[in-house]
Amino acid sequence: MIKLIQLYLLMHGKTNLIPANNNIAFNQMLTDGIDVKFSVGEGKARSDKVWLIDFETPENNAFLGVNQFTIIENHINKRPDIILFVNGLPLVVLKIKNAPNEKRMSKRRSISCKLTRR
């Protein structure tokens, strides 16, 4: 996703590729839409606004949740538990913890703590 934002910013003459600025630019694209120029024939061009997400009619959007989606960045594999996509854009990354295992670990820590106090 960052690569697409960087490409968009470079194409529009913005070379500041600080990650925080990328996030701000991406947020603006989501909320304000994107102005796109296109040819209408005979050397004429026109501009129109493209919306990445239809906030007014949510059912017009495509929602997808993916389990164990692999992301490769700088030759490093990352595999979040769940990624939620809206219109093909990865907008939510979830890390799920197993509650029963957490309770067992918490109990083990408590026992360990009691044993070391004596």
Mean pLDDT equals: 76
Instruction: Give the radius of gyration.
Output: 22 Å
Sheet with the most strands, sense and barrel status: 3 strands, antiparallel
Series of secondary-structure elements, N-terminal to C-terminal? HHEEEEEEEH
Structure class: alpha+beta
Distinct helical segment count = 3
General form: elongated
Integer count of domains = 2
- Binned, the helix content reads 25-40%
The order of strands across the largest sheet is 3-6-7
Number of strands: 7
Topology:
Blueprint: H1 2-11, H2 19-32, E1 34-41, E2 44-50, E3 63-67, E4 71-73, E5 76-78, E6 82-86, E7 89-94, H3 99-117
Antiparallel strand pairs: 1-2, 3-6, 4-5, 6-7
Helix pairs in contact: 1-2
What does this entry look like structurally?
This protein is an alpha+beta fold and about 120 residues long. It folds into two domains: about 1-50; about 55-118, no CATH class. About 35% of the residues lie in helices and about 30% in strands. A three-stranded antiparallel beta sheet has the order 3-6-7, with no helix packed on it. The longest helix is centred in the C-terminal third of the chain and has 19 residues, at about 100-115. Helix 1 (about 1-10) crosses helix 2. The model is unreliable at about 110-118 (pLDDT under 50). Strand 4 (about 70-75) and strand 5 form a beta hairpin.
Q: Which descriptors would you attach to this protein?
A:
118 residues, two-stranded antiparallel ribbon, 2 domains, single chain, 36% helix, 7 strands, alpha+beta, three-stranded antiparallel sheet
